Amino acid sequence: MSSTGMLSGTSQNTAPHWDPAAVRQLVEARLDDHLTTPAGVPATLSGAMRHALLAPSKRVRPVLLFLVAEPEEGQTQTVLDVGCAVEMVHTASLILDDLPCMDDAQMRRQRPTTHVAFGQATAILGAIALLTRAFGIIAGLDDVPAPTRARLAQVLADAVGWDGLVAGQEIDVNGRAAVVEPLQIDQLNWLKTGVLFVAAAEMGAILRGLEDDKIASVREFARHFGLAFQTADDLLDKSSVAVAGKDVNKDADKTTLVTLFGAGKAEQTCRQHIADAEAALLASGINAAPVRTLMARVLEAGRMTQK
Amino acid sequence: MSSTGMLSGTSQNTAPHWDPAAVRQLVEARLDDHLTTPAGVPATLSGAMRHALLAPSKRVRPVLLFLVAEPEEGQTQTVLDVGCAVEMVHTASLILDDLPCMDDAQMRRQRPTTHVAFGQATAILGAIALLTRAFGIIAGLDDVPAPTRARLAQVLADAVGWDGLVAGQEIDVNGRAAVVEPLQIDQLNWLKTGVLFVAAAEMGAILRGLEDDKIASVREFARHFGLAFQTADDLLDKSSVAVAGKDVNKDADKTTLVTLFGAGKAEQTCRQHIADAEAALLASGINAAPVRTLMARVLEAGRMTQK
Questions:
Q1: What is the rounded CA–CA span in Å between residue B116 and residue B106?
Q2: Which of A136, A156, A173 sits opposite B157 (nearest CB)?
Q3: CA-based nearest residue in chain A for residue B176
Q4: Do the Cβ atoms of B154 and A136 come within 8 Å?
Q5: What distance in Å separates the CA atoms of residue A171 and residue A186, rounded to the nearest whole number?
Q6: Nearest residue on chain A to B151, judged by CA atoms?
Q7: Which residue in A has a C-alpha nearest to residue B39's C-alpha?
Q8: Do B175 and A42 touch (CB under 8 A)?
Q9: Which positions in chain B touch A139 (Cβ < 8 Å)?
């Protein structure tokens, strides 16, 4: 267990108390707990939710949230629950992004997409149930002071809303033709990936009780991490289904940094985001080593860390 | 303005302080405020949200919430905001129910359905944005103590979730063939309509500061009102598009009280629910006259009050 408190400002100890892989296992177990289905839930609905939520995943957002919060013993469950809420929101967005009227994807997280397995109606309803559940979990965090719960809900709602994740998907589906400049691509990547990375990290920082200036550094770190992650994902789109675990070459007709400047330039941009993320991480004062391990591991898929 | 406080238990004054039609106008204006679109929101997305949310509607749920809360001057805006959150959730559910993969409806609230006007992807994203916004509004109610905000969010999340509204729609789309008994129909009507009626009324009761036993009466009242409303809606499905303002005869292959027992028996059931609703309303101690007016007006469409 970490020796620093959820409410302490900074950690003096730079040792990696938490291995991201161990945190990921805790997240997996807690997600499963949350989908223990009560009577009255249609089996198709809970089946679709489990199919989507419990599929293999790196759990980047909840693990990131946890490593930023660095909970003491006794606070672990609460921090995991907030991470599960973020993962539910993320999974809901994936279910919807994959629909025939959006990306029309067949594979996701090494499984058939949810609408392929359960039909479109159940997939959409499963997404809504996950999204709603996320806000219900946050509202019901008994160990967290109510003002903090309200603040967490606000951060999550702002991240998902009409100028956040939802806007990113709308532009991706219906406004992509107008996205042709590097700054526009950065903005779209920010909306599609950055906002929820930042929300996850910020929620961890709030649970930790960080001061506002440190929270700003955490946000800056997560923004660059998210942009690096999205660029790596665009590079991954040029790989194979076996490597990606999902449909590839879906972006063939979309402008990304990869299609605009080629893989070399995209990799360079990705590395710059990683460097900027690390600088902001150090400024935040949180324990950097586990977070750096997480970044290295999740960016491996895009092979950003192999050279 | 009402002479009873938001935190007072009961009203001694049985005069109709608020006319439901006046409250409805306040709701309309406040919904419009909430959709004032900031920069960065794609025009198609906010267009779809406005199309769905600002279409003609009786605003039954937010008006009901308001009449139960019976706010003092200075608390009106807060109560309207909570009502707007409920209406956003309701509208999101209508957008999704109308999709081709669900009811495949062309008309709703006297307009083309949102997916007909804006395409399926934008319609779905608009629904998600409305749903998320609802939780954001509740989290951000500065005038409401944080524990109350958390309680309101919990009530709303429970109403929408996998054993609430979402379950009702899943059964309606994929499990309807097994719904053949009156009790099953009541249960489905409860999930499709009752839960959000009850949540709206309960949120009003919480804002009013009612004691738990009175809240139980408010819930009982709203449950019967919701079931009466759904039965009236099933009767309306046998009328014309011009009367209903939406597609009719969509339930031709579904078992409802109307198809099972005919319109006469359904009307009788509806009237029993109205009587039970009125009894519970009196037991709750809230000002009954405006709520009775609301019930009479919204059930008129199903002609339950004309004989």
A1: 7
A2: A136
A3: A42
A4: yes
A5: 13
A6: A139
A7: A163
A8: yes
A9: 150-151, 153-154, 157
Q: How much is the mean pLDDT over chain B?
A: 89
pLDDT < 70 regions, chain A: 1-17, 239-244, 251-253, 301-307
Q: Are B259 and B188 in contact (CB under 8 A)?
A: no
How large is the ipTM?
0.91
Q: Is-contact A169 A190, C-beta < 8 A? A: no
CA distance, residue B102 to nearest chain A CA (Å): 6
Inform me whether the pLDDT recorded for B233 exceeds 90: no
The Cα of B67 is separated from the nearest Cα of chain A by a number of Å equal to 25
Global pTM reads: 0.92
Separation CA B147–CA A148 (nearest Å): 10
The model's pLDDT over B201-232, given as tens digits with 9 standing for 90+, comes to: 999 999 999 999 999 999 999 999 999 998 88
Length reported for chain B: 307
Are B136 and A154 in contact (CB < 8 Å)?
yes
Considering only CB atoms, B139 lies closest to which of A145, A150, A166, namely A150
* Residues of chain A contacting B120 with CB distance shorter than 8 Å: 99, 101
pLDDT digits (tens, 9 = 90+) for A210-243: 999 999 999 999 999 999 998 888 887 776 666 6
Helix, strand, coil percent values for chain A (each to nearest 5): 70, 0, 30
Query: What does the block give as tokens for A32?
Result: 């499963």
Over residues B140-168, the pLDDT tens digits come to 999 999 999 999 999 999 999 999 999 99
- In the 8-state DSSP scheme, what is residue A75? T
Residue A43: both structure tokens together: 């089996």
